[in-house]
Every structure is written in C-alpha cells, then in structure tokens.
C-alpha cells in the first residue's frame, strides 16, 4: 500500500472514531483487518492514530495560530491537519516535506485544488514559523491541560484531589505507552517455562512484582506467539492481576464475580482456585456472558458459570450469605486506561462521575448481602477519581456496619506497592506513572 493511501485510511478512521465517540481500539483493529493493512504498516498506522487522538488538544492549540478559527473546517480536513501536525512534531522519522506532500495529495484526492492549497498553506506556514509556545499559556492547570491534551475540567479536578505533582505525572504518563504484561495459566505452564520460551523467540521478559503469574513483556507481538494462541498465557494489566491476588481464593470455594466481562479477572480467579470449586460470573448482556465463557474455554477453565444478569438483581438468583468471595469490578469512567483508550478523556464528562458513582453504590448495596460472614469482597475500578473510589467505599461502609475495611489488606500488598505513595485511607489508588500500569483502585472489605 502506498504511503498516501495509508494516510488517507488513517484520516477516515480518525473521523469515524471522533464521530462514534470512541472505541478507537476496536475500530483500529477492524480497519487493519478489513483493509488488509500489511504488517509493516500496522505499527505506524496505530502510532499515528493513537498519537493524533492522544495529542488532539495540543495539536488544535498549535493549529489555532495558522487557521482562521472562524472558518468551519470539514471534519476530514481538520483531521488531515491534526494528523500532519502530529507527524511533524511528535514523530521524528518522517521528513516534514514528505508529510506536507502526502497531506496535499490526500486533500486533492478527497476534496479539490482549493482545499489542497489551503492545507499546503497552513502546513508550510507552520513549518516556517514554528508552533506557538506552550509557555505563553497562563495558569499552571490550563498549561498542563493543553500541553498534555487533557480537558481542563479534568486536570483541575485531579489537582484538587491529588495535587499538582501527581496530576502532572499522571497526565504525562497518559501520553506514554504502558508496559505490556501477560498472565500465565499456571495449570498449563510455569512462569519460568513461559519466560524461557518467549526469550528464545526474542522477547524481552521479566517477572511482575504484582502477581506470581505475571510477566512483563518488552518488544515483540505476543498475539502471534504459540503461548497466546494455545491459551498458555493471556494479556492482562498488572493492576488487574493484583485484584485476584488480593481476593485470596482457595480451591473449592464459591465465588461471585458480579461484573465480569470480558473475563480477565474471573479466569485468573479460576486459575487461583486450581479449577476446583464454583464461580458465578455475571455481566449485563448475553453477548458479554458469552465472551466470558469463550475466554474461560480458551484457557481450559471449567468452573466458571457465566450468565447475563444485572448485578443489582442477583438477590433474585442467589441466597444471601452464599459466597466465600465476591468481586465487584465496577463499571466506571475509565480514567485509568486513557493510555490504551485515549478517546475516554474527551468523551467522558464530569456529570458521568456522579452518575457512575451512584450505579457503583447501588451494585455494592445489592451484591454485598450475598457475602458469607467472614467472607471477603473486593471493590475495584479502572479509574482515578475519589468520588468513584474512596467516596463509594466510604458511603458503603457508613451505611453497612456489618462490613469493614479489611485491615490486613495493606500489609498483604506486594512490598513494592507498600513503599509507594499510592495507598489511600480507603484502599489502593494506583496512578499510571508509579508502576506504568493502568490507573486502578482496589480495596478489600470483610463481612464481620
Ligand atoms: C470494568 S468492566 C469488568 C472487567 C472484568 N472484571 C474483567 O476483568 O475482565 C465492568 C463490566 O461491568 C458490566 N456492567 C455494567 N453494569 C452492570 C450491572 N448493572 N450488572 C452487571 N454488570 C454490569 C459492564 O458491561 C462491564 O463489562
């Protein structure tokens, strides 16, 4: 495929991602497969798409100085400009003249000569004069928002909650690639054997401190490895692995995962139980329950019974006090996974936080009575926000005197985490910059 053609596919894809409000990861995968993008171009395409979305607000700030802001640009023209500026300023392997030439060709092909000369003018002007200085932006929060391309309200909210330094670290980390980690299926292979096999294939690997089953993988495409394709390993962020580690399950237990699709943590739980006992896994829709069952089958795990069901109505299906362990990995704003799904930072609004916190509280209130006395419940989210995390936990504990934070939780965290600043009064708030994991919250509650 010609460079220009690939760039045109990227522009179309970026427009679609913006119009569909997200799902960038799914749309990129689909586009790569449906357009038969050759493997050699896959990495560059992914980098340009993610990079352009990740840096959208910075790119728009750069463009403002060169585009008449009163002029309404067609979405594809704006995307073409953003994508070109991204390549000019954040990728050093493509010379500016080549980027401008390709942009002009795309503008001619998709539009007409007038648009081509407009695109040419904007980009050449920017090349000659340089982009506006970010230092000129007044206000620390405002500057950080533009520099790291996060909405101003979110940056201000995080600064109020966690202070400037943590917020700045988090915003910057959200622009980086996170570490890729995998989890071995210990009933099929040991961690050491998996690492040996991957090293022979040229992968760089090291053990995770978060889970005895975790491996951090450096360069290489794990999706094409035998270990992945035959269910010896699965991809999972280390923060998610920690959830099941902290659930402390044992073979033979009865466990509930109330919000379990796509099944990362529930399959880990089945592995920890050595595939003995029973696990009930729910998610809202039948399609999602099917996803969980497929993941379990791929890993040869048979004790998971996945069904469609609303966590808030599980008392209709299960007796009170019937589970030894419960996991509530709740639906959330997802601000901890901005690195992998950058559209989240633009699409989620401040109102969503209170709405989701109310759903999370509702789920906790309805699911917790199903826990046996002396049993353990983990509440977790992949977000960084005190309302959804500490706030929901605090409200639940205030309203349920028969439940308490498990005081042994902090002592049982891996020692690297105990030494980090990420522990809060109500649980562990992992920031993405501390261990290059997802931003993640988890806490453990005991029925007393
Ligand atoms: C953070 S994800 C769970 C990820 C999963 N635990 C894993 O490790 O793969 C939250 C899930 O909750 C589901 N969900 C949302 N509202 C729910 C409800 N009321 N009852 C059950 N599941 C719900 C969503 O469909 C989503 O799949």
UniProtKB/TrEMBL annotation:
Principal localisation: cytoplasm
Catalytic activities: cytidine(967) in 16S rRNA + S-adenosyl-L-methionine = 5-methylcytidine(967) in 16S rRNA + S-adenosyl-L-homocysteine + H(+)
Taxonomic superkingdom: Bacteria
Similarity section: Belongs to the class I-like SAM-binding methyltransferase superfamily. RsmB/NOP family.
Gene Ontology BP term (one): regulation of DNA-templated transcription
Keyword Protease: no
Keyword RNA-binding: yes
EC number: 2.1.1.176
Record: residues binding S-adenosyl-L-methionine: 259-265, 283, 310, 329
A Pfam family that the UniProt record links to this protein: NusB
One GO location term (cellular component): cytoplasm
PROSITE patterns (UniProt xref): NOL1_NOP2_SUN, SAM_MT_RSMB_NOP
Organism field: Lentibacillus salicampi
Protein's recorded name: 16S rRNA (cytosine(967)-C(5))-methyltransferase
NCBIfam families: PRK14902.1, rsmB
Phylogenetic classification of the source organism: Bacteria, Bacillati, Bacillota, Bacilli, Bacillales
Domain spans labelled SAM-dependent MTase RsmB/NOP-type: 170-448
GO molecular function: RNA binding; rRNA methyltransferase activity
